[in-house]
């Protein structure tokens, strides 16, 4: 700020912080195109299967359909039977219906992904914001910031998959332990993103204007800085969800994830992989395709949100230039 800044100029700079928050809203709720609608339609289908997927087979059975099977129901007389009118995707070596299990599996995969990602955001983003805000200031504050980031370095120094497998092996194989392992794996991602954003926004003119207007640290952080420091984290959430879904399936594939007989895509692929060499491809191919589609849909969603964020930042750059001209 120069000594010629007027109160009106200070107010306009402070208001620009709120403008960035509205920009984040525009990024999220802009009218989608056809491709974007297809991507979010796919996300909607996954969420729908999470809610009703395990119930579809029993509903079909109650309706008198021969194709209606529970996800853990066994048809012992038709083990490793190929796709048919009774078993749309065939059966695995235990006689379980692959179709009903593929419909039921997204629930456990997505619940683990959402829980682990949410915990990573709730813990990682505040730590990153704190480290970014206090870093480079007083000695004690800088030491705290460095301690937080060095802790993140320690977490990232371990091979991710090996770390998760060891944690599951030590603490026991359960859904809760898998969620904790995946939370720890993704914690540094959101902490570093939030810190990088905070280091940028804390030096913006609207932050200086808010300080001149007498805003304390608490109000400055929660009213102006934190809401403007989460855009990158928001854009990363769908990508991390897809990564966690794939990671969960990988843990189950090596026997360290969700316990059978719970329907889970990685576990289903592992069970069916042993029969690929003898020509029974359906127990692993159909879950593999479902897993690939889930990860791909969330990757496209992340790409769309990132594109929206870039568009908003370009618009903010133009608005900032116009404000600077008017202030001059």
Characterization of this structure:
With 328 residues, the chain is mainly alpha-helical. It has a single domain (38-76, 104-303), classed as MetI-like (MetI-like fold), CATH 1.10.3720.10. The protein contains 11 helices and no strands. It has helices spanning 7-29, 34-62, 98-134, 139-157, 160-171, 175-201, 205-212, 217-225, 231-253, 265-273, 282-327. The longest helix has 46 residues, at 282-327. The N and C termini lie close together (12 Å).
Task: List low-confidence stretches.
Answer: 1-16
Oligomer: single chain
Radius of gyration: 25 Å
Name given to the CATH homologous superfamily = MetI-like
Helices and strands, in N-to-C order? HHHHHHHHHHH
Count of the separate structural domains: 1
How helix-rich are the residues, as a percent range? over 70%
List keywords for this structure.
single chain; 328 residues; mainly alpha; MetI-like fold; 74% helix; 0% strand; disordered N terminus
């Amino acid at each position: 700020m120069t000594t010629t800044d007027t109160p009106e100029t200070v107010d306009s700079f402070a208001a620009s912080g709120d403008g960035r928050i509205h920009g984040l809203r525009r990024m999220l709720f802009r009218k989608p195109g056809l491709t974007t609608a297809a991507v979010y339609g796919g996300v909607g289908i996954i969420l729908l299967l999470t809610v009703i997927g395990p119930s579809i087979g029993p509903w079909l059975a109650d309706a008198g359909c021969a194709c209606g099977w529970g996800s853990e129901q066994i048809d012992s007389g038709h083990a490793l039977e190929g796709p048919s009118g009774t078993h749309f995707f065939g059966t695995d070596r235990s006689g379980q219906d692959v179709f009903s299990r593929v419909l039921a599996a997204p629930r456990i995969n997505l619940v683990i992904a959402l829980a682990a990602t949410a915990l990573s955001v709730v813990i990682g983003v505040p730590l990153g914001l704190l480290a970014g805000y206090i870093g480079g200031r007083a000695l004690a504050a800088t030491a705290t910031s460095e301690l937080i980031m060095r802790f993140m370095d320690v977490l990232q120094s371990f091979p991710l998959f090996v770390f998760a497998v060891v944690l599951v092996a030590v603490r026991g194989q359960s859904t809760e332990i898998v969620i904790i392992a995946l939370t720890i794996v993704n914690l540094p991602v959101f902490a570093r993103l939030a810190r990088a954003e905070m280091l940028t926004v804390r030096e913006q003119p609207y932050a200086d204007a808010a300080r001149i207007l007498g805003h304390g640290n608490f109000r400055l952080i929660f009213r102006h800085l934190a809401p403007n420091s989460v855009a990158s984290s928001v854009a990363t959430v769908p990508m991390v969800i897809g990564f966690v879904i794939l990671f969960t399936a990988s843990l189950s594939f090596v026997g360290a994830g969700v316990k059978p007989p719970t329907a889970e895509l990685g576990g289903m692929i592992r069970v069916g992989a042993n029969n690929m060499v003898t020509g029974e491809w359906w127990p692993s191919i159909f879950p593999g395709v479902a897993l690939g589609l889930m990860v791909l849909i969330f990757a496209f969603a992340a790409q769309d949100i990132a594109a929206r964020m870039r568009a908003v930042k370009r618009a903010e750059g133009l608005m900032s230039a116009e404000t600077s001209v008017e202030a001059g």
